[in-house]
Amino acid sequence: MAKIVMVIAPENFRDEEYFKPKEILESNGHEVITASKEINQIRGVGGGTAKATVKVMDLSPYDYEAIVFIGGQGMQEFTNDSDLKAAAKKFYDAKKLTAAICIAPAILANAGILSGKKVTSTPSAIEVLKKAGSNHTGSLVEVDGQIITASGPDAAEELGNKIAEILKPK
Q1: Which of 128, 144, 153, 157 has a beta carbon 3.0–4.6 Å from 106's, enabling a disulfide?
Q2: Is the distance from CB of 1 to CB of 32 less than 8 angstroms?
Q3: Quick one: DSSP state of residue 13?
Q4: Which helix (H) or strand (E) covers residue 72, if one does?
């Protein structure tokens, strides 16, 4: 099955946006690796913890089938981070599934990969997405080619199911 990397902020990721898709992907036989700015134990806003075992700057799209950027309060200051933008662009350019939820679609916008795409996000990211030339739909989840975006915690389960469906062996 597929190997997927989920990228979380160094603190205060949104628990359900990380744990729900991760659970769905693993229950579908996929391997999920967690990355962040540093290798560390990280606490979510809801008190859950996750261990980042890879640094974002060290990610190679050739080691994974998909990258998923997780939102939450902690990710707000990283939407224009050079390492996260570079990872998004590398995965997209390598034709890998590139996904983001909540505020994290702003990373994809700032990486320059959303022009002309149908996307969704939390309301606080809408202006960044529109400036990047994307079409914000307000849906729970949007799929446009290899880009998947989700609006927030309420979309976490649907995001996990959509990624699992797309990565299902043919």
Answers
A1: 128
A2: no
A3: B
A4: none
Q: Is residue 13 a contact partner of residue 27, using CB atoms and an 8 Å limit?
A: no
The rounded percent of the chain whose pLDDT value lies above 90 is: 98
Full residue range of the structural domain in which residue 114 is found: 3-166
SS3 42: strand
**Residue 87: which residues within 8 A CB-CB, separation 6 or more?**
7, 56, 57, 59, 67
**95-123: string of b/e by CB count within 10 Å (b at 16+)?**
ebbbbbbbbbbbbbbbbebbeebbbbbbe
d(C-alpha 146, C-alpha 117), whole Å: 10
CATH number of residue 24's parent domain: 3.40.50.880
- Cα separation, 116 vs 130, whole angstroms: 10
Position 18 pLDDT exceeds 90: yes
Mean pLDDT of 1-13: 96
What number is the average pLDDT over the span 122-128?
96
Secondary-structure breakdown of the chain: helix, strand, coil percentages, each rounded to the nearest 5: 40, 25, 35
Q: Which tokens sit at 167? A: 């990565």
169 pLDDT band, cuts 50/70/90, is: confident
d(CA 65, CA 61): 7
Picking from 170, 88, 75, the residue whose alpha carbon sits closest to that of residue 125 is: 75
